């Protein structure tokens, strides 16, 4: 998860992003279910609302965590992994 830290400008957004990924890994698709599946988010109030804001790119001005930046980072990571296989 640390690979994506340059996109995340503050600790709160980092916790939200990591918790969302962990919750989604539990195959939950509804924001409340994602929040409940992630220990980091389950312990915080309004986690489902925070997930919805992140998904809509309305979380914070301190982060560049948007769809374009994230997919660009994912593409770059994939290229690096493929190059390492050679």
Keywords:
86 residues, mainly alpha, single chain
Structure description:
This protein is mainly alpha-helical and 86 residues long. It has one domain (2-85). Helix content is 63%, strand content 0%. It contains five helices and no strands. Helix 2 packs across helix 4 (47-55). The longest helix has 19 residues, at 67-85. The radius of gyration is 14 Å and the shape is globular. The two termini are 24 Å apart.
The total strand number stands at 0
Distance between the termini: 24 Å
Q: In percent, how much strand structure appears in the residues?
A: under 5%
For the sheet with most strands, the description reads: none
Order of helices and strands: HHHHH
Number of helices: 5
What structural category characterises the helix and strand content?
Answer: mainly alpha
**How large, in whole angstroms, is the Cα Rg?**
14 Å
Whole-number mean pLDDT: 75
Provide the helix percentage: 55-70%
The total number of structural domains is: 1
Strand and helix layout:
Elements: H1 11-25, H2 31-37, H3 39-42, H4 47-55, H5 67-85
In short:
The model has no long low-confidence stretch (mean pLDDT 75).
């Amino acid at each position: 998860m640390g690979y994506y830290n340059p996109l995340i400008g503050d600790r709160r957004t980092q916790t939200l992003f990591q918790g969302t990924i962990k919750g989604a890994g539990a195959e939950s698709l509804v924001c409340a279910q994602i929040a409940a599946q992630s220990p980091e988010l389950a312990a915080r109030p309004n986690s489902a609302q925070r997930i919805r804001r992140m998904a809509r790119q309305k979380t914070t001005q301190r982060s560049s965590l948007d769809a374009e930046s994230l997919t660009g980072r994912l593409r770059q990571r994939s290229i690096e992994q493929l190059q390492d296989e050679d």
